[in-house]
């Protein structure tokens, strides 16, 4: 009986596993006031791109500026007192040397100089604190990214502290995370194929596509969580992708493909060549005497109409491509080897 066969040949391929996940921002900040007062300016448009250190809001700075001026005056006064204390100390030192003034007077003047010096340092610190508080009146962007809408507008009174209101938020859009769950078997296989001394972030590629499937983004594994969830048997994984065009947004649903660390020698055969015998999978192999041999196989994932074969076949085996219902073990056949084109058509 004529049968169509193909020759088993392993080849180096990168294996991929498919997952689904959600996108999240690499950097996300909520903008809240650190100074109390009236909002006098909102210096951005909703949804625009802002650069780091751009001024976003201005809170009435006049009370804080007045405090700064007061602290500057205090510093000048403290410096004047210190200069006078130095002069007094120098003058009394000369008089003590001539035994015209008691030592007790000199000790008092030295103490006054030390106190005056401490007052100068305190005045400097108070001025520095006042200038810092004044800078809080000008709320700046801590990161670059896309800013949300403003939650409070000009004229609203805000206060700092633990209950400070949310003014807006910024999401950095140059890179984006994809968070997904990886089954334990895939995680162990990933670790097994990670070469010592090389970073997992570099080794394992990840491909991302959105619901429309129009674009494919290429990234890499950023991190794995530190434990397996016993209820689901999965571990949280995170990949990172460049987002220079800004098309990827936090919260989007994504299709993800996690690639093996390296290309592996793998045997792939058409799914049509695989038969089912209760809970076992098998193929028919044609031996050198052109007789069929029943061969049990252990198969893996499906890849574009083919199946990975983990065991049961080796290079050079001639496997019957289809029509297994007509084949019996130890049957004499006339094998016809399929060409690469015919084999590709058969897989489809």
Automatic annotation (TrEMBL):
Membership in a protein family: Belongs to the membrane fusion protein (MFP) (TC 8.A.1) family.
Domain Multidrug resistance protein MdtA-like beta-barrel: 197-258
Alphabetized GO MF terms: transmembrane transporter activity
Subcellular location(s) of the protein: Cell inner membrane
An example Gene Ontology CC term for this record: plasma membrane
Stored Gene3D superfamilies: 2.40.30.170, 2.40.420.20, 2.40.50.100, Helix hairpin bin (1.10.287.470)
Residues spanning the signal sequence: none
InterPro entries reported for this sequence: MdtA-like_b-barrel, MdtA-like_BSH, MdtA-like_C, MdtA-like_HH, RND_pump_MFP
Protein name according to UniProt: Uncharacterized protein
């Amino acid at each position: 009986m004529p049968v169509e066969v193909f020759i088993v040949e392993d080849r180096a391929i990168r294996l991929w596993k498919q997952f689904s996940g959600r996108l999240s921002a690499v950097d996300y900040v909520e903008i809240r006031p650190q100074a109390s007062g009236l909002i006098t300016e909102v210096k951005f448009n909703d949804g625009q791109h802002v650069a780091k250190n751009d001024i976003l809001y201005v809170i009435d700075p006049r009370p804080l500026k007045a405090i700064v001026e007061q602290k500057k005056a205090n510093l000048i006064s403290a410096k004047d007192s210190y200069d006078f204390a130095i002069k007094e100390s120098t003058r009394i030192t000369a008089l003590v040397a001539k035994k015209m003034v008691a030592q007790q007077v000199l000790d008092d003047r030295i103490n006054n100089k030390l106190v005056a010096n401490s007052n100068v340092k305190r005045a400097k610190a108070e001025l520095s604190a006042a200038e810092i508080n004044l800078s809080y009146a000008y709320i700046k962007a801590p990161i670059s990214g896309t800013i949300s809408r403003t939650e409070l507008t000009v004229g609203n009174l805000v206060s700092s502290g633990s209950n400070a209101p949310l003014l807006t938020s910024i999401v950095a859009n140059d890179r984006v995370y994809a968070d997904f769950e990886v089954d334990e078997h895939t995680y162990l296989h990933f670790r097994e194929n990670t070469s010592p001394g090389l970073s997992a972030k570099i080794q394992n590629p990840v491909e991302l596509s959105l619901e429309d499937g129009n674009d494919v983004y290429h990234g890499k594994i950023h991190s794995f969580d530190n434990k397996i969830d016993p209820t689901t048997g999965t571990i949280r994984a995170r990949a990172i992708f460049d987002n220079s065009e800004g098309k990827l947004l936090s919260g989007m649903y994504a299709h993800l493909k996690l690639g093996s660390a390296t290309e592996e020698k793998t045997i792939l055969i058409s799914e049509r060549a695989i038969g089912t015998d209760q809970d076992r999978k098998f193929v028919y192999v044609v031996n050198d005497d052109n007789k069929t041999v029943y061969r049990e196989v252990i198969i893996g994932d499906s890849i574009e109409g083919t199946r990975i074969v983990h065991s049961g076949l080796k290079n050079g085996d001639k496997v019957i491509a289809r029509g297994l219902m007509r084949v019996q073990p130890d049957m004499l056949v006339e094998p016809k080897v399929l060409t690469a084109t015919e084999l590709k058509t058969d897989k489809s």
